[in-house]
Design brief:
By secondary structure, this protein is of the alpha/beta class. The protein has six helices and 13 strands.
Length: 310
């Protein structure tokens, strides 16, 4: 076949160039993606990854041999193989039945053991063993933002979670609205937040960094923007952040909470310099209810943004 006169050999894309281009694109996309469960930054997330990889290995013990045997059988019993022994009247073989049933049974037993041990070791309510005293954080899922109350420090923040590195954090969680989920993939397990009750979760960050928290349960119009940054900082930096938060912003109490609880999306992270004692209990017991209806434009309300963080 003759090439056109304007043909230039440089227009040909060699397989090597295509491969390099695809690799570079994958690397760029990978750099843009947030780290997930396979890049743990805490003991709970690391244990979750171990369970995931152990389960994958056990299941591959069936999947890989099955794929290989399918290819082997297709090749051996091909039409041109005169050495293949064919038994058109074959009905039953005890040895075949033993293999066919024993392998899945063993797999189910192994997976059950992994799940049994993991569900007890990683019970969200079980405290993390540490010489450090855990800090308390009370979490309230709102429409469509997150409220984090630090009862020991007497402050609160919206759409931003700050935690010290190497210190266990005990979360008490509830929902002031519909069912939701609290999940930080690099730190640990996903737990539901439910209206009228409090659930527990214990997490710890082993290294400093900026992590990604997210809601994993559809909850309405603002669900897609219901995420939050998690700043794992040194204990000294955490103390500095607490001191800074105490010096500015409003107080969060029964008077200001209803305004905060109104529906809004893409709310800029803010802090409250003081929190009314027992506020989380009042929200959990539903003595305090979120105000109905959205704020103007569903973009937050200026009256609660005086503590806006940079």
């Amino acid at each position: 076949m003759r090439r056109p006169k304007h043909y230039d050999r440089r227009d040909e894309t060699s397989p090597q160039r295509r491969w390099l281009g695809a690799t570079a694109a994958a690397a760029l996309l990978g750099g843009c993606a947030r780290q997930g469960v396979l890049a743990p930054a805490g003991p709970i997330a690391a244990a979750n990854r171990t369970i995931l990889l152990n389960s994958l290995t056990i299941m591959l013990a069936i999947v890989v041999p099955t794929i290989i045997l399918n290819l082997v059988f297709a090749w051996w019993f091909r039409e041109g193989n005169t050495r293949a022994k064919r038994q058109p009247d074959f009905v039953y073989s005890g040895r075949v039945e033993l293999i066919v049933w024993s392998v899945p049974i063993l797999t189910v037993l192994f997976l059950s053991g992994v799940i049994w041990v993991g569900s007890h070791d990683l019970d969200p309510s079980v405290p993390i063993k540490s010489r450090q005293k855990p800090i308390e954080v009370q979490v309230v899922s709102l429409d469509w933002k997150w409220l984090f109350i630090y009862p020991q420090q007497g402050i609160a923040s919206v759409n931003r979670l700050v935690m010290p590195v190497g210190v266990p954090v005990h979360f008490s969680m509830t929902s002031a609205s519909v069912l939701n989920t609290f999940y930080i993939p690099q730190l640990g397990s996903q737990v539901y937040t439910m209206s009228g009750m409090a659930s527990e979760l214990n997490l710890q960050a082993d290294r400093s960094g900026l992590y990604y928290g997210v809601s994993g349960h559809f909850s309405g119009d603002g669900f897609s923007d219901m995420d939050f940054p998690v700043n794992a900082v040194s204990p000294a930096q955490f103390a500095g952040w607490v001191s800074q938060a105490r010096g500015k912003g409003q107080s969060l109490d029964a008077r200001t909470y209803p305004q905060l609880a109104r529906q809004s999306t893409r709310v800029t992270p803010i802090t409250f310099r003081a929190v009314q004692p027992g506020l989380f209990g009042d929200i959990t017991s539903q003595r305090l209810l979120p105000a109905p209806g959205p704020t103007t434009g569903r973009g937050g309300d200026a009256s609660i943004s005086s503590g806006d963080e940079s």
